[in-house]
Amino acid sequence: MVQREDLLTPDNDVVAPPREGARAPLMWSQEMYWYAYHLPLPVVDSAKIQLTVPLPDPGLAEDVVLDAVRRLMTRHEALRTLYPTDPTGTPYQLVVDRFDDPVPLRRRGNEPEDVEAVFHDLFLSPMDQATELPVRVGCTLNGERVATLVLLLNHISADAASLPLLRADLKRYLGLPDGQPPTAPEPAGATATQPATVARQQRSGTRDSAQLKALRYCRGVLESAPGVQFPRFRTVSVVDPANGIESHYRRVSLQSSQLFAAFRRMREGTDFSVPAQISAAFTMAVAALSGNPRTVVKMNLSNRFREVRDSVGCFFQEALVSVDPLPGATVHELMAATKKRIFVGARHAQYSYLAFRDLKAEVESERGRTVRLGTILNCSDQFATRLANPNVPEGTPEIRPRLLKNLECLWRDEYTDLCLKSFAADGEVVLDLVAHRSVIEQDEIERMLVGMERFLIALSEEPHLADATVAEVVERFGFPVASYGEEWVHVDHSWVDTAKLARVIRSVAGVGAASVGLVERPSGEPALVARLVADPSIRAEVEAHVLAVAREELDVMCPHAYVWCDALPDADASPPAEEGEPAGTGTPAEAGSGSDRPGAEARDRAFAAAVSLALRGAPVDLDSCYVRQGGTAVMAPAVVRRLDRLGYTGPTPDDLLGPWPLRVVAGLCVPGRDKTAG
Where is this region: Disordered (predicted)? Predict the structure, then answer.
């Protein structure tokens, strides 16, 4: 058998930085950020987080500040770790022993806009995981002294729970009045458990049983999740004229002192925490906006296990939480279910992300459609502390009016539908929503946030509101509500446009007519059935075509069954495509997949050669999907890199992991540059 080492090494597909240091596998939690780095969002880049430390007047000398940053990097291994891949395409951590001090980005002036400008300059250029240390340094200057220190961190090396630890260390090293007195330099790694140690423990076998339970839980969520929460999601391209950056998202922040006061009133005598209440309100809003009674959210919980509570690194993992805000359920029932589901999701949030990504691809193959998990909820775990803060007096005499602000949004990906971040600060509760432009309009964002705020305030004033139904809350508080036409059906927990699906099927050569509708299975559940006038021998072509279209048209899916007919009643025949409406024949995959097009055979050969990396040199069947042939998530980026070396661009790792035949992915390939390898 040909080994992957033999396939990869001759073409130098491995990024091997000329560094020395300790090697370790990736932690499960780091795997998500390694995989996401290889997706074009729209450029290949790392997720980044910011740490800002204002310095007391008149500031500090730059050499003192940079020395503190070096001490910080020496103390915490995560801040001097690279993430290259080995000859098999597998990523690993490389904790470097010696490193150069980061070169600071400087800006004169210390107004808020100066600090923001430093952050922007640090943020906008891509950060290479394999070759660039995960810390960038910037500062604003007051004369020749540093007034504000800005650190930009690669998220694969630090999570939000790391920031207070880093801030405390920096203040100590800088000798600031509110920090502890500086101490002698610590030896490298003189903190709590390091990421490399955790990674080795995870690979030791001691956590296999817990991981299997977690993955079984994830399978259950994936099998019953909506294919897409918002079937009208579409890729958009909006360029912000102010900075020339593609802006796919809107960001609106609601700041409410009334809501802060309401939560204070409810913190005693209620069975539900503030995060549970906000989560229930958000799932109601999402269910109303999407029209889907099942809501699956990814929750950014601070689910750090005990050994790493005082460690710097990216240890948290997203918890999958599935909630059913059914119209007839009461508020109390929904909150009780939400509280339980959050607990269960957090308990099953420790697993290999790459194993989860393989599992997701397997479930998608079984269901015949992708599962888009694009709804994110991040509730601060500091609500209880903030609400009990004696520095914010009870019963604030003057309740400030609600404040809705349109904020700049630097998100550039297409992998999120809605993301709500909620926290308390300075006597206000903040609901900060990042929303994809194809999912929700500007006025709907404001109606959603205001509706959530009004509902939660009313809940504190009207205890009987807990007996109201979800439908009553949606109507009373004005949540935006989705509507679908008669041609839409709800099946497999998802909305499907049957008229469009019928037109897609009819566009396949050899299909004379087609219609799509629901029938009841013996189990009582509905099934999506296509009736078509065609020879049954073309079923594979029909399925491949539907899957190809479903890459972009999220309101279609593969039927559960086909019925082959000699003719269809006129009433059932699907109408012709309207002008300007996609019929399924012009998608990128289909447009380039014909074998009679010039260069198609060479393209297919190159694509098969690249995919063979993931299959250990085994023959590649372009009429079967990647996962069914043994392809894995960890190898998908290596396949894309190899394809690039063969002179083709276009496919992403996510395209490989989809449920469609590989011939569809091959159709995405376009010549990128001159071939450098045969």
Answer: 177-208, 573-601
